[in-house]
Design a protein that fits this description.
Helix content: 25-40%
Strand content: 25-35%
CATH class of the largest domain: Mainly Beta
Number of helices: 10
CATH topology of the largest domain: Jelly Rolls
Number of domains: 3
CATH architecture of the largest domain: Sandwich
C-alpha cells in the first residue's frame, strides 16, 4: 500500500472553504475546486519512492479510473463529455494538428470517454439533462423577450430531442447579447415572484445570471432539469449528457479523462459544434445509482461499466476485525470521516484521517478497514459484478 499525495485544482468555481475544511486545514485564501486521485498525465497523484516523491503512474501504470473530491461554490460550465469514438477521433485530430496539451483551445486532452458518477457528501445541486419539450415551452412562455420567443416558435415547429438540439445550436452559434440575457434574468425574477409554475427554473436562471451576467448559459439553464442529491445519494452521468453542477461537495469517480466540451458559464474555450455533436438523445436524464450491499457495512455503486465502481464503507466497533472492502485489484481508498486503519492481506497497516488516501495494488490482496469512520474506494469491478439498478431522478 502507498500513501498518496494528491494535487488540487484551483478553478474559479471552487469553494475556498469546503475542501480545506474536509481536509482539516484553514481556508486556502482562494478557490479549491477539486482534489485529483489517480494517474491522469495532466495531474497524477504522487507516492514516496526510494529517492523521494514519484508519480503514481510510475508505480501503478495507467489506472482506468480517477477519483475526485469536488467542491462547487458557484455554477460550473455547461458541459458534455464525449463517448469513446468521439474522444479517440478528437484526440487524434488535435494531436495531428499539433495543438499543445495545455493550449486554452485544446478540447481533447486524452483519447478516453468520460462517463462519471457523483456521490453527494452534502446537498449537491446540479443541472442535468433536457426537460421534456412541453415543460421547456411552459418555462419559456413566461419570458417575454423576443429572442426567447423565437426559440419557442422553433421548438413548436420541431418538438422533441432534435428540436431541442436545434435550439441549443442556435443559442451557442449565435448567442444572445448581454443586454438580451439581462432582460431574460429580469423576466425570470418577475416570473419567480409571481409564483408562476416551475418557478425553480426561473430561480436557477437568476442564480446563474448573478454569477455569469450576460452569459448564454443563463438561457441554456432554462432548458435543463435542476436536481438536488442528498448526502449519501449517488447518480450516474453518461457520456453525452449535458450538465452543469451548481453547488455542493461530492465524491466523483470517472474514467480517467479530462475531456470537456463547454457551452457556457465559463471564460474557457467554448466548442458549440463539438458539444452539439456529442449530445446523446438516449442520455437526457440523470440516473440514480441504487447501492448493492457488500458484507455488513459496505454499499457498492456500479453503473455497469468495466472501468470503475465505487464502494462506501461505514467502519464501526461492531466489526472488531474490520470491514472487508470489495475487490482485490488496483484500488484507491480515501477516508471520508473519522480515523480508520486499512490493513492488507499480509498485515501491513496504514492509518487514514479524513481526506487522506492510499493506493493498493494486486499484491496487497483483500483489504479491511478497522476503526470508526467512513471510507470510499474506487476500483475496477470484477467482470461478473452486476450493475446497480439505475432509476430516473427526474
Amino acid at each position: 500500500m502507498r500513501r498518496l499525495e494528491n494535487p488540487d485544482r484551483d478553478y474559479d468555481w471552487g469553494s475556498p472553504e469546503a475542501i480545506p475544511r474536509f481536509l482539516g486545514r484553514p481556508p486556502a485564501g482562494g478557490p479549491v475546486a477539486e482534489i485529483w486521485m489517480g494517474t491522469h498525465p495532466l495531474n497524477p497523484s504522487r507516492v514516496q519512492g526510494a529517492k523521494g516523491p514519484v508519480s503514481l503512474r510510475e508505480v501503478a501504470g495507467e489506472l482506468p479510473f480517477m477519483l475526485k473530491i469536488l467542491a462547487a461554490d458557484r455554477p460550473l460550465s455547461i458541459q458534455v463529455h464525449p463517448n469513446a469514438v468521439m474522444a479517440q477521433e478528437g484526440y487524434r485530430a488535435e494531436e495531428a494538428a499539433g495543438v499543445p496539451l495545455d493550449a486554452p483551445h485544446r478540447v481533447y486532452k486524452d483519447p478516453h470517454p468520460k462517463p462519471e458518477m457523483v456521490y453527494a457528501l452534502t446537498a449537491f445541486d446540479t443541472l442535468v439533462g433536457f426537460r421534456p419539450t412541453a415543460e421547456i415551452l411552459r418555462v419559456l412562455a413566461a419570458i417575454d423577450v423576443p429572442r426567447v420567443q423565437d426559440l419557442v416558435e422553433s421548438l413548436r415547429r420541431q418538438p422533441g430531442f432534435l428540436g431541442i438540439v436545434r435550439v441549443v445550436e442556435d443559442l451557442l452559434t449565435d448567442p444572445p447579447s448581454p443586454e438580451e440575457v439581462a432582460e431574460v434574468v429580469t423576466a425570470c425574477r418577475d416570473a419567480e415572484q409571481r409564483g408562476i409554475d416551475i418557478k425553480r427554473a426561473y430561480a436557477t436562471a437568476v442564480l446563474v445570471g448573478e454569477h455569469h451576467p450576460g452569459d448564454v448559459g443563463v438561457v441554456m439553464s432554462l432548458l435543463l432539469n435542476r436536481l438536488t442529491l442528498q448526502p449519501g445519494e449517488a447518480a450516474y452521468l453518461g457520456a453525452g449528457i449535458i450538465h452543469a453542477h451548481l453547488s455542493g461537495l461530492c465524491v466523483e469517480v470517472m474514467v480517467s479523462s479530462d475531456n470537456v466540451l463547454r457551452g457556457g458559464l465559463t471564460g474557457k474555450h467554448l466548442d458549440p459544434q463539438g458539444l452539439v455533436r456529442c449530445l446523446d438523445r438516449g442520455m437526457s436524464r440523470l440516473a440514480r445509482v441504487e447501492a448493492d450491499q457488500f458484507g455488513f457495512s459496505t454499499d457498492v455503486y456500479s453503473p455497469g461499466l468495466r472501468e470503475f465502481a465505487l464502494s462506501i464503507t461505514q467502519c464501526s466497533s461492531a466489526e472488531p476485525d474490520g470491514a472487508r472492502l470489495p475487490d482485490d485489484g488496483r484500488r484507491i481508498v480515501v477516508c471520508l470521516g473519522g480515523d480508520v486503519e486499512v490493513v492488507n492481506e499480509i498485515g501491513e497497516r496504514e492509518k487514514l484521517a479524513r481526506g487522506e488516501a492510499l493506493f493498493a495494488d494486486v499484491s496487497d490482496g483483500v483489504l479491511h478497514a478497522v476503526g470508526t469512520g467512513e471510507v470510499a474506494q474506487a476500483y475496477t469491478p470484477a467482470p461478473d459484478l452486476p450493475p446497480a439498478e439505475l432509476t430516473d431522478l427526474v
